[in-house]
Design brief:
This protein is an alpha/beta fold. It is built from eleven helices and twelve strands. The protein folds into three domains: 5-110, Response regulator (Rossmann fold, 3-Layer(aba) Sandwich), CATH 3.40.50; 137-212; 220-380, 2-Layer Sandwich (Heat Shock Protein 90), CATH 3.30.565.10. The protein starts with a strand and ends with a helix.
């Protein structure tokens, strides 16, 4: 680190000389002036790393200099640490120093050894604060860049995908029987590829919204059973394609409505079902169970499959974004590894929980628990 510069301003020539020598002995470059006006002029000519100002000085007192420093348009000067020196000892005078923006306050007579320690500590704290500000500014800048990139991607990728899917459908419909089996298969593959890319993009953009804090829930009291039924309907095509059946078991006890964003919760449950289907063997059954946990007034959704289950030592990693449970070049499943991450984020935004465990015999069990919001509903009424 370069040599630190200290400005000391005091109209007492003895104190000014002693302070200057003490600071130089600690390795600082020192500039000494005997009034407030000179202190301000010196700072404008050459900013310092720290200023030591006497409160009572001619031409311009220390508090006036401090006010000028804190309102300076020069970012380096405005955040510079300032230690005030004074013979005043009342609480009002001390409070006035801090109200004006002083970093610290030292009463006369000065202990130069203690002053040296305080300057070293103050400079270290100032360096840490500066580093934190730079990190926060960099994070904010990166966030703005990321948001811009994501918005651009949404526009620039979705538009051509819609065009490709549209022309594929148009060719299929317009050519009809004139298409041979190979051509028809090629057009179907194009449509399926576009739909797969669109699905991955939607998950990516949704996760980006959650991370950026731009994700807002539209809460209303809704039947979870209806949302689960909708999710099952959404996943029937994939289930039939994989040769997997889905069975819904709803509690005989009437379930209370849950305060939630229905469309977001639909995405959450659909992702959980898709994940279960993806890892289920052919001709197996996924059991979806809805029940009420009266102990904490929550609705419990369980999705149990007949797959290989999960490595319990790796359960935590299942919710890490872009990490596949079935990894490697030969993995049987495809995707961005965002389905479970998005589902868990949506569950937690609803003050719910999402857990994955192994069943006693075989297969995995995903448990989504959601508070019913009974107390808040009663209060609203």
């Amino acid at each position: 680190m370069s040599v630190r510069r200290i400005l000391i301003a005091d109209d007492d020539p003895v104190l000014l000389e002693m302070g200057s020598e003490s600071f130089r002995a600690e390795g600082y470059v020192v500039t000494a002036v005997n009034n407030g006006a000179e202190a301000l002029a010196q700072l404008n000519r050459e900013p310092a790393d720290l200023a030591v100002l006497d409160i009572d000085m001619p031409h311009m007192d220390g508090l006036s200099v401090l006010r000028k420093i804190r309102t300076s348009l020069d970012g380096q000067i405005s955040v510079m640490p300032v230690i005030m020196l004074t013979g005043r000892r009342s609480e009002t005078d001390i409070k006035e120093c801090y109200d004006f923006g002083a970093t610290s306050y030292i009463a006369k007579p000065v202990s130069w050894l203690n002053m040296a320690h305080q300057i070293a500590f103050t400079l270290k704290a100032s360096d840490d604060a500066l580093a934190l500000r730079k990190n926060l500014e960099m994070t904010a800048r990166q966030s703005r860049i990321k948001d811009t990139v994501m918005m651009t991607l949404q526009h620039e990728l979705r538009s051509p995908l819609h065009v490709i899917k549209g022309f594929s459908s148009l060719l299929t419909e317009s050519l009809g029987n004139r298409l041979n089996d190979s051509d028809r298969m090629s057009l179907n593959l194009i449509t399926e590829a576009v739909e797969s890319i669109s699905e991955k993009m939607n998950k990516l953009f949704l996760y980006s919204e959650i991370l950026s804090g731009d994700f807002h829930l539209r809460r209303e009291f809704t039947s979870v059973q209806r949302i689960v039924s909708r999710a099952i309907d959404n996943c029937l095509g994939l289930a039939n394609e994989r040769g997997v059946s889905i069975r819904l078991i709803a509690s005989e006890q009437k379930l209370p409505e849950v305060e939630c964003d229905e469309e977001r919760l639909l995405i959450c449950i659909s992702h959980l079902l898709e994940n279960a289907i993806k890892f289920s063997p052919e001709s197996s059954t996924i059991v979806v169970t809805l029940s009420l946990d009266s102990a904490d007034d929550s609705v419990c959704l369980k999705i149990e499959d007949e797959g290989e289950g999960v490595d319990e030592t790796q359960v935590g990693k299942l919710f890490v974004p872009f990490l596949q449970g079935d990894s490697g070049l030969t993995r049987s499943s495809t995707g961005l590894g965002l389905g479970l991450t998005v589902a868990k984020s949506i569950a937690e935004l609803h003050n719910g929980t999402l857990e994955i465990t192994n069943r006693e015999d075989y297969g995995a069990c995903v448990t989504l628990t959601l508070p019913t919001g009974i107390s808040s509903k009663t209060a609203a009424a």
